[in-house]
Records
---
Amino acid sequence: MAGLLKKLWPAAVPAIPENDDEEIFNTEYSIAMEYQGPPVTYAIPQIVPVKISQIPIASPVSSGTFLNNLSFPIIQPIVKSKTLNQKSSKESVDRIESSGKLACENGYESKPKLSHGIGSSGTLEVPDDDKEDGGFQDYMNPTNWESTESGLSSRVPSSEVFSCREDDGNDEIPHHVKRPSVTFESNEVVVHEELDESEEGSVSMRPKIERLKKGVCYRCHRRKRFVEKEVCIVCGAKFCYDCVLRAMGSMPEGRKCVTCIGYRIDETRRGKLGKGPRLLKRLLTDLEVKNIMNSEILCEVNQVPPELVFVNGEALRQDQLFKLQNCKNPPKKLRPGHYWYDKVSGFWGKEGQKPSQIITCQLDVGGHVKRNASNGNTKVLINNREITKEELWMLKSAGVPCEGKPHFWVSEDGTYQEEGQKNEKGKIWDKTRTKLVCAVLSLPVPPGTENPSRKEVNGEIRDNLAQKSIHKFLLVGYDKSGTSTIYKQAKILYGIPFSEDERQNIKFLIQRNLFGYLGVLLEGRERFEEESLLEKRKRCAVDKSGPSGDTIQIDDTTIYSVGTRVRAFSDWLLQVLLSDNLEAVFSSASCEYASFIEEMWKDAAIQATYNRRNELQMLPRVATYFLDQAVEISRTDYKPSDMDILYADGITSSNSLTCMEFSFPKSTQDDTLDPHYQRDSSLRYQLIRVHPRSLGEHCKWLDMFEDTDIVLFCVSMTDYDEYSADCNGVLTNKMLASKHLFESMVTHPTFENKNFLLILNKFDLLEEKIEQVPLSQCEWFSDFKPIVSQNRHNSTNPSLAQRAFHYIGMKFKTLFNSLTDKKLFVSLVTGLENDTVDEALRYAREIIMWEEEEEPYFNNELSSTDIEASSTA
Ligand SMILES: Nc1nc2c(ncn2[C@@H]2O[C@H](COP(=O)(O)OP(=O)(O)OP(=O)(O)O)[C@@H](O)[C@H]2O)c(=O)[nH]1
Ligand SMILES: [Mg+2]
């Protein structure tokens, strides 16, 4: 029988054994073949599970349309035991030994053997045609087979690509996958595969394939870098638009190449099950795609094998896994691996890691949670588990006293009490701040009453919402470097509304700031008045003693003197400011100050003072913006505009840690460049802004942010001649202080391999300042000696500020490289201008993507400034 089959399809029957044994007849085989008959909707390979005995071999040539229209059929045994939890339908079932090895039931250890047709000598009988094909020949040559350490697998040498002779140049079989080899020493079918020991506790059943160059389609081998591809969830082969249907066939188990059908999925792709079949959507109807996606999610072979899921050290049974997956709040992204579960609180996490989720409590899965389950080292316990640093931070933010290394009992709703004490002390989750801290530190919060992501599919509850992976940007900078301005700018840019609470806070903040600015003005007026009085007296004295006796009547005093009403208001305001009682004043909303402010603002003395505002050092630059609308702002019904919010100094009174989630809106640039970016509009990002004060001494709290994808380190370029006093009153150059903070961060062990994007901010201010104060004022920049041409500035002849920016960037790059051996990315920003902030954040996204893809997507011209290309001289 096998011989006959081989005669029929000599080049395409790799798996048919020599023996005509009944066993073989009764083994189910799949035939994947391409249909080349009259046009049907689309030509796709058909997968037909048949037994050899059922194959219509009577007269293949004359058997009519069906067989004649099939070319290159691939016949493969369907090995039902490819998933570890599945029962075999036959005796010829592979057994998974406890060591995780795959072996034959009869104890024969499988040897790598041919799969094309075995001669009695065990050598290959390769048809002449095939011999011409180097790749195929290599594959078929037993001397080229190698055993791996386990002795179970075989590696295809040479190209490692199963290459099949092309008949008409058009209809290759999906040939990239290394075929499982088959031995027939015991009439049993054994699939040899490579073990991927990298996966936690699992025996990977995935056939390895040769990784082709990026962008290459695994079927037609054409390089189409910017063309969307569909990926096999088992072997990772990617197929282009033209090839995907031929390579994947009817997809009974979702997006798998035909040769991967029956195999367990690659666990790293589990998160992608049922998601984003963008290419298929272009090729198939909605219903077809939906069915394929449903099969992908629901078919048995794609499920997580229970014995590979360990909870508190115990492997699960099928019923336990079912319970876990179908409870009210099931673990998300459940994959084979080791987890811990605190039944009392519902905390759930990967072994050795902080909790990732709060699932339904009191489930009967796994044993007791171990003290070291999450590898915490804080000596503080929650339900017998030593908690992690992050959790300790969260508890502290919730106001839970943690001195004395207490042991807490925490229940599902977050109520907690100390061990040995009867009274509940409160609820952890009550404070909004605690939730914010949790969001930032990637700690779970109890699920809401309703979880909208859960959906009923075919009677089974599945978490069907895309498990969006969030990329985290950590924005840090020295005092007043502009991080909150950039943060607010991002909020406005990406349409993340300020909450009512935030708006109320900001409104008060702006009004308070305005009163502060007015206070500075009023003090200034008093000073100017005194100065002019002094001046007047001097002049009088000169006049009296003067020879001529003529007096020049310039009386400045009237300019700076105010009427009684304004004086009274001014005295009151200064008093309020001094007593720091503004909040109380504003909270009595019934009081309307606008009319006072208006009267005062119109006063000639105040206007005269305002005109000399450059002499008032206490008045920040931004004050002009707010003073110009002093009357509107002081009204009780004032609503801050986005611009007002942006310019307001500080976000809230406690602005040490803020966090927002956003997506990049699709830009026209994204459209034209790469599908990757189009997909990106659905990806979520988190911008976390943290003040260095919150990081503690030597940034000791920095490891809270270990899952940061990229650090945006913000430096104000105007800091080079400014000083700040530390707690001992010692003055430090702010640029050097910034450099010091930068060094602490980049050398922090948690951030060893992190990407850093340096944001050189306040370029607008630098342009003004650099004309007045040389950059070399800062000792770190002492060798900045630019030769600036008098000609107009252009791209080849940059301005002094541009040169300074390049120079500062270079200094940081060199420093970064000397500390980390890595490349620092740099972006030029003016925090008050939205386009530069947008550009910097998109650049950060690009850097993360490069990391993911290992290759840059497009050239740097489109991204933020590349310092390396510039010169500093
Ligand atoms: N002109 C100009 N002003 C800026 C720029 N970026 C920030 N500022 C101003 O600089 C001041 C400090 O900026 P913030 O964003 O508050 O700085 P910060 O990093 O939050 O500093 P902390 O207040 O210490 O938290 C504010 O008055 C901002 O309006 C910029 O690019 N140009
Ligand atoms: Mg600020």
Note: The longest strand covers residues 28-35.
---
Amino acid sequence: MKQISHLDDIPSTPGKFKMDKSPYNRLRWHSSLAKLTFWSFVFLALIFIFFFRSPSSSTPQALSDPSRRYLQNYSWGGAAWEKRVRSSARIRSRNGMSVLVTGAAGFVGTHVSAALKRRGDGVLGLDNFNDYYDPSLKRARQALLERAGVFIVEGDINDEALLKKLFEVVAFTHVMHLAAQAGVRYAMENPSSYVHSNIAGLVSLLEVCKSANPQPAIVWASSSSVYGLNTKVPFSEKDRTDQPASLYAATKKAGEEIAHTYNHIYGLSLTGLRFFTVYGPWGRPDMAYFFFTRDILKGKTISIFEAANHGTVARDFTYIDDIVRGCLAALDTAEKSTGSGGKKKGPAQLRVYNLGNTSPVPVSDLVSILERLLKVKAKRNILRLPRNGDVQYTHANISLAQRELGYKPTTDLQSGLKKFVRWYLRFYADGKKSGV
Ligand SMILES: O=C(O)[C@H]1O[C@H](OP(=O)(O)OP(=O)(O)OC[C@H]2O[C@@H](n3ccc(=O)[nH]c3=O)[C@H](O)[C@@H]2O)[C@H](O)[C@@H](O)[C@@H]1O
């Protein structure tokens, strides 16, 4: 049956419309016109509401969504800002590169940015300074980079307009993509933040990179956690990575697949680095070695995980300087992307490497080393490894990185923690900073 509606009176061909003269029909026509006007207003109002509540605005609703809480309106742009961007990214050595480092106020990001700048590469940082852990530590890292001549733009990798602007101002040769939602256990508390940064953010970055002309080569942080529940050790790049134990691991694995797609379709040169529990000065307070140090000094009990039947939980702890050398080697050996303006011109490089230390240490031994360095006995509470994303054991096979990147870790856990503890005691010495 045909539905009667006020729209039935509107001709499809306006010129052919004949006005019906009867007063009854005129009334119907007027009321239809009024309804049409009314619904047009409703429609326009909906469009208005939609645009003013879009993710790029910092409305209370957008900010109350945990996955969106960092999509604030960062202020960027303007002549002075562009000048700072250009100057920070300027290459100062022969054959140097200009690198956009995302997550530059993060642990690895700060170290990599400083190392690149030291050797004369142009470096521009990008960071959203979120509050996953104490933002004042990120600000302190920012101040450190500022002194080295590295400017960190405040913004989110999901902000494509900002990313496009950065590529308009600087023709980056490389992107070192380290911005991510890290941490294995936090994924159960705030799952959407992992999707926001590690998946949506990665796609947003790759979208801009694929359209850039020239396209940059991209090196990015994957994770040892992609090996998930594998029991065959050491972990090799050839091993399966289809049984992640945490959402964090799943988003990093998804990132590797997304990298494959962008390499395949657009000719982007992509290198994923699977980091193994990176530690050191300026580290992340959410990691065990860091908060164990803080809690041991405060006399607080620490929880040390063990597997079933008193099984050892161990990590292939890798010192930050070794990781930085691996990152720089990955950038140095990255071939150019082959596409331009969003079109692939030929096959491009696609790589994945383990960057580990190749000598796993039980977590209880890590605590013993900290006790010796801090000269304080830890209050240990042995707990069964919770099922919240942690795996029992990690151990990297690094022969591929050794062969192709010349990667060779040189710092054992004892020497690395010594440097960390020295930094920690100095950094938190004034008692004002909490180390949280
Ligand atoms: O290798 C990696 O890719 C990952 O390394 C770390 O993850 P994880 O190795 O779990 O590092 P921590 O959270 O510092 O834990 C280290 C060890 O301490 C154990 N642990 C942790 C917390 C705790 O209270 N007690 C405890 O015994 C964990 O089970 C683990 O064996 C990082 O946090 C991840 O962001 C990174 O991606």
Note: The chain is about 40% helix and 15% strand.
